[in-house]
Amino acid sequence: MEDAPSAAQVLDRLLDSVAVAVNSKSALTGNVETAARAEDKKRRRNQQRQAEEAARDGRPRKESRPDLRRKQELRPLPGPELGASVKLPYIALLHHLARGLSLTQRGAARGLAEHWGSLKYIQALQAGKGTYLWLSSEGKRIAKHYKTLQSDELGQAFALALAERILRSRFPGHEVSILHSDTVLRAGWALTSAERENKDDKGASVGYRYRPHYLAEVWKPDQPSMIFPIACKGNHSGAAVSHTQLASCAAHVDGVHVGAWNQTPGLLFSTELPLDGPVTVHALHASGSGSRLDFRSTAGTRDADLDQPPLQKEYFPGIERPEEKGRHFDPEPGCQVKPEYFAWFQETLAHTDAAGLTAFAGAGSATARQLTKRQGREFFKALEHPAAGSVQDITHELLGDAFAGTDHVFRLNGDHVEAFSGVQVDLFRHLARGTRNGDDATQRAEVSAWRKAAHDRSRAWPRCDWDDEWGGPVSIHPDGTVLALRMVNVQKTGH
What we know:
It is a single chain. By secondary structure, the chain is of the alpha+beta class. Helices cover 32% and strands 21% of the residues.
């Protein structure tokens, strides 16, 4: 067994630029179509078996579910967007995962900021042959015990990193915010029967588990946003399983339509994490013209006001399919953001984005204020750094900028390591306005001012570098969030 690296070596390697293999060739679309047909055939066979068992036992036959509705016309990504591989520092990958976890309410880090769960992968991957990322010895050990969780979360990390890169290349000069889909959708729809306001109304919940895992918002201040649903999975098995996962992702990404039927684009990822080969991300996309929240061109709709409190809506689920040759169709399962919802949805996206940043800084009160009850307002009210009523009491200057946030000390190969996550101070003040001790609690967060400031400052980021004064690696994202780590001495006290 190889010796475990020291904590200092692990932190030093976080800034190494590593390559991630990408497969988005034309053959991949055919493989995914074949996998989808096989899955539909298996689904129909299972339905037939269940019907026969019900008939034999004298039980009522359950209504057969139709084949899954999947996003059609999947295509390889244009070559210049990713190529055959992508290089990035490993700390940037951890940063993407941490941001993606900050509003998930999974409970794995209850009592701490949710995103600290990303730190368990700090040495799960390492550079292998040709600097490509491979699972490390520790990553392989984790895979034996937490296989599904590891592939799921690392699959998210790679997908979020690549999705942001793709969308920034498509829309230069715009910002890209990637938001947990269920958190966003809960502001307008009850996703499960347990979330219904009216428990007697059985038709008021979505009740359809195929939804995007994330929604990417491409935005500029004072302009309508563009929405890109993202579906992502991971596995330790191989390319064939990735083909099946992408077929499933095609159903997930089609669970939300923005505007008219079947006009919403999408990004699909499956990350292959083999035990004896390099990590490979299999990626496809679907084009579409309906992602823009152009509320100003819709008659009778209001303008978006990002500074008003978040609004909880109770929209009826279902996606309206247009008539064909006079034939009327019942609504398809899923969520449809209709044009009359566009202004509200743009506000909801901005509020959820703001909540993700303040959660990343450990500011529970500021986070709760940007969420509706169903989105988790009460959950985050209890999530506040214990040192004071404001996380602005914890600040660090990193790579020449000041950040407010929260910290966490953990053991890494026998040594104590401090992790700090936060938001650039000026941006944080816009969102924490009215939540600090002594402030007027009626003051609203300045969401529109925060977005303008974030857009103006984003040109200085991203940055990944070693900060000598801090004493460790630092990652700053274009959204103004920071993830920094360093070794610390912890004094033991006796009694």
